Amino acid sequence: MIVFGAIGSHGGWHDLRYHLRPQTERRAWLVRHLESMLGAVIAALTAFSVFNAHRLFGAVLPADLAFLPWVLPTLVGVPAARAWKARYTRGGA
């Protein structure tokens, strides 16, 4: 729980700094908002996979791979979010 509190505090600090400084890009607020939404999606998928993995994959997922529900949503979601941000900030969307 301390780790989640530290992550949340870090995100809150960056949000506060973001909102207190003047923005130079027109769509910066939208990019920041969508980054936060994608982070929430990753968190929700992590929670869902951790609490339901044994129901869905209990017989298939061996004990030494029990960490996968914890890390797989992040390993897939973070690169996807970064690729989306790179494409969107270039003006592709």
First-last Cα distance: 37 Å
Overall pLDDT confidence: 84
Main β sheet profile: none
CA-based shape:
elongated
**Helices and strands, in N-to-C order?**
HHH
Radius of gyration: 17 Å
What is the number of E strands?
0
Proportion of residues in β-strands: under 5%
Helix content: over 70%
How many separate helices?
3
**Stretches where pLDDT falls below 50 for ≥5 residues?**
none
Sheet/helix structural class? mainly alpha
Keywords, separated by commas or semicolons:
single chain; 93 residues; mainly alpha
Structural commentary:
- This protein has 93 residues and is an all-alpha fold.
- The protein has a domain at 26-89.
- Helices cover 76% and strands 0% of the residues.
- It contains three helices and no strands.
- The chain has helices spanning 2-20, 28-57, 68-89.
- The longest helix is centred in the middle third of the chain and has 30 residues, at 28-57.
- The protein starts with a helix and ends with a helix.
- The mean pLDDT is 84.
Describe the secondary-structure layout.
Elements: H1 2-20, H2 28-57, H3 68-89
Helix pairs in contact: 2-3
Transmembrane segments: 36-54, 66-84
Keywords: Membrane, Transmembrane, Transmembrane helix
Summarize the structure.
The protein is mostly helical and 93 residues long. It has helices spanning 2-20, 28-57, 68-89. The chain crosses the membrane at residues 36-54, 66-84.
